[in-house]
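Lecture 7 notes: from sequence to structure.

We start with a single chain of 62 residues. Read the sequence below before looking at the structure.
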Amino acid sequence: MGRAVSSDNRFNLDGINAHKAKIDEAMLTQRTTRDRSTQKLIALTNLPWLIALVAWLLWKYL
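Now the structure, written as tokens:
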């Protein structure tokens, strides 16, 4: 069926280390993606405050 690790290597240290490396890589990718989307969400939540500040400054000084 095209498994990445044969059943003989499944319980060897090489097989276990290969699976652990795949899991670590997937977790790092997920964390990086989540950090990027969190930063975008924070920027969007700060946008109304920025607009309000600019509007207040324009009203006060013009």
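The chain has a mean pLDDT of 79. Keep this in mind for problem set 3.
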